[in-house]
Amino acid sequence: MEISKKRKFIFQKFLSGFALVAILAFVFGFVPGKAEATVAGYTAQKISQSFGSLTLAPGKAITFEAVFKNTGTATWYNSDSNYISLYVDSAGRQLYHPYWYTIEQPAKMLETKVLPGGTAHLRFALKAPELLGFYTIKLKLAAENLTWIPGGVIDLPVNVTNGTVSTQAPVASSPTSTVTAAAESFGATKLIQSSQAVALAGGAKTNFTVGFKNIGQTAWEISGANLVKICVGGTTATEPFRDTNWLAINCPAAVSSATLPGQIGYFSFSLAGNLGGDYSPTFVLMNNDKAITGGEVSLPIKISGTVETPIIAPTPAVPEPTIRVGLYNTTTAETLRANTAFEVRDAENNLIFSVPGGVTATVAFNFTAKTYSASLNGGIRDNLSYLKFIPPDLNTIFEITSFEDRPAWNTSLNDNKFRGNLELRWSEDRAKLYMINELPLETYLKGLAESSNNNPAEYHRALAIAARTYAQYNLNVGGKHPAGNFHLNASSYDQVYRGYNSEIRLPNFVKAVEDTRGLMVTYNGEVVVTPYFSQSDGRTRAWEEVWWGTGKAWLVSRPDPNCAGLSLFGHGVGLSARGARGMALNGSTYEQILKHYYTGVEVKTIY
Questions:
Q1: Can you say how many angstroms the Cα of residue 544 is from the centroid of all Cα atoms in its chain?
Q2: Same-domain check for residues 150 and 277
Q3: 603 Cβ partners below 8 Å, 6+ apart?
Q4: Which of 292, 417, 482, 512 is the Cys-Cys partner for 285 at CB 3.0 to 4.6 Å?
Q5: How far apart are CA 38 and CA 43, in angstroms?
Q6: Stretch 138-143: mean pLDDT, rounded?
Q7: Same structural domain for residues 28 and 48?
Q8: What angle do CA 383, 388, 393 make, to 5 degrees?
Q9: Same-domain pairing of 599 and 568
Q10: What is the average pLDDT score of the chain?
Q11: What span, in angstroms and rounded, lies between the C-alpha atoms of 328 and 434?
Q12: CA–CA distance from 519 to each of 121, 287, 488 (Å)?
């Protein structure tokens, strides 16, 4: 993939029609093909790789290590602006594992510094996709923001099969060996639940949340082979208390976000008072229809009265997901307040403070001890694990008073208000402290600032669907920033997100999000990546014209007559914002717009 931060912007950013950064990135000369240029002093020689080829069962994972000699004259580092890492092509990203540094970078160099003549080790996991087949992946060594490194290439054939194959440990000294990954294990222990029992009136609803610590060896995921969901155990009938938004008839929800071993995964769902009576269901964590040891919670439910017609509505294919957005990184203490009371909790969900509405709390991180502290009204708690700020519901608006994000067009505004949960969390891999916003996907979309309010309604609908699809695609692959503990960032490198103030400024776009709830772009039934950009020069670009790797059938060059004679702003792949606005003004519907820029796709309701 492209390696400079500006080049990442050109191909990763699915940008606003008005993003100044997009224009700057284009003007400064980042054009297709330049990534293959090299910088003097950077060359490498591959010394070894763990395996010459792999045979893996679907959903299984294995550790891979590559060793390179620094044959150039430049010193390699793993933490400066030119850090050494491996990038993977689009085929290789199908073997993404949550432990990767980013969705495009499986690993950074392990050593802090490698002098000329020294050797560098890069170690990462590969996880087989569910789709059987033969994959040939390519990895390329890079000095970030600077150059691909000649000699730093790995070609790795991977056969994903259900056939009977032996299980062997990796043998680093035998680069031609073929191995199969051993089965990964699951385990859980319950730490927290929002209530010990539920009492409901007939026709009423309530929310329930339970948190389990992942004590196994495998990351819990929101989809795919490692999907972990919570289900009603045994033969208990769920009709009396099942809500309409459950994941399946007997399974209320999946884990709210990817949960690594040692972390806490939360399962939130609603219960409905459909039929009066006393019920005692046991909810059990499941993976591939197998119960996870330790993943049980019993919940007595008492429903008083009856409902004339029990609510047994059809359930969507998947529930609305939760997305984690990296708002910014910080090196100072942070202050925040909200319009209602909220809670400060630690990583284990222990209550640290209950903060009244309008009162400011202060939180900080000790960069030496790697611990957190919180203070409220003169009281201080320190030596804490990472901190979460939990509102009672989405009507709570957080204001981070220590944070400034002022739009260039009106610096009197400050986009520092957000719905949903907030989290202050250190990333060891990135050596950065992030403020993270966790919230439902539809609420996130309403906070995007990728348009102006007075654009045509059909354009807004097309843009909302493209943005939703892009976010869902990245959720499906584990996010773009697993090393930072979030899925997308809030800047123009991903999607421009400004939170609550954007909802206020862009009510027409908010309506477009509501009008298109759950609608996404699919190709052959699968949610796909949907890039968009500012404007073309009369035609859009095919995926392979701009980005490294094989092409994508839905991302081919398309005529863009509303931009004829203009300059290209942005990467040029997918939906052209200016062109799409022109189509909407000329009477095209959102579906016609999407099918023009994304070839052979269908627009389907996913949840």
A1: 24
A2: no
A3: 465, 519, 520, 521, 522, 590, 591, 594, 595
A4: 292
A5: 9
A6: 92
A7: no
A8: 155
A9: yes
A10: 85
A11: 6
A12: 44, 27, 20
What's the pLDDT tens digit per position in 162-194? 653 333 333 333 333 333 333 348 999 998 888
Token pair, residue 474, equals 């990245």
Q: Is residue 359 part of a domain?
A: no
- Write the single-letter amino acid at 246: W
Q: How far apart are CA 253 and CA 34, in angstroms?
A: 46
- Assess if residue 361 is contained within a domain: no
Same domain, 82 and 212: no
Q: Which of 553, 494, 241 is nearest to 543 (CA)?
A: 553
Ramachandran angles phi, psi of 225, nearest 5°: -65, -30
Within 13 Å, how many C-alpha atoms sit on residue 438's CB side?
Answer: 19
Structural domain including 79 reads 41-183
What's the whole-number mean pLDDT along residues 318-322? 87
Distance of CA 374 to the CA centre of its chain: 28
Assign residue 217 the CATH number of its domain: 2.60.40.10
Amino acid at 257: S
Q: What percent of the chain has pLDDT over 70?
A: 87
pTM of the model: 0.53
Decide: 257 and 226 in contact? Cβ < 8 Å. Answer: no
pLDDT at 306: 52
Rounded Cα distance, 29 and 590, in Å: 33
Contact 440, 493 (CB under 8 A): no
Strands 417-418, 398-400: pairing is antiparallel
Angle between helices 20-27 and 5-12 (to 10 degrees): 120
Q: Is residue 409 part of a domain?
A: no
The DSSP line for 96-135 is --TTSSSSS-SEE-SSSEE-TT-EEEEEEEEE--SS-EEE
Annotate 526-563 with three-state secondary structure.
EECCCCEECECCCECECHHHHCCCCCCCCCCCCECHHH
Contact 70, 120 (CB under 8 A): yes
Q: What is the pLDDT of residues 452-463, one digit of tens each?
A: 999 999 999 999
pLDDT one-digit tens code per residue, 489-511: 999 889 999 999 999 999 999 99
| Euclidean distance between CA atoms 72 and 44, whole angstroms | 7
Number of independent structural domains in the chain: 3
Q: Is residue 409's pLDDT more than 90? A: no
Residues 45 and 178 in one domain: yes
Given the structure tokens 């250190």, which residue do they identify? 426
DSSP for residue 355: E
Domain-embedded: residue 500: yes
Closest CA to 600 of 555, 559, 538: 555
Structure tokens at 279: 């019920």
Query: Are 135 and 238 found together in one domain?
Result: no
Percent of the chain with pLDDT over 90: 60
Domain-ending residue, one of 183, 202, 228: 183
| pLDDT-based confidence at residue 38 (cuts at 50, 70, 90) | low
33 and 108 in one domain? no
CA-based radius of gyration for the chain? 25
The length of the chain, given as a count of residues? 607
Distance separating alpha carbons of residues 134 and 156, to the nearest angstrom: 11
Q: Considering 304, 320, 355, which residue would you say is the last residue of a domain?
A: 304
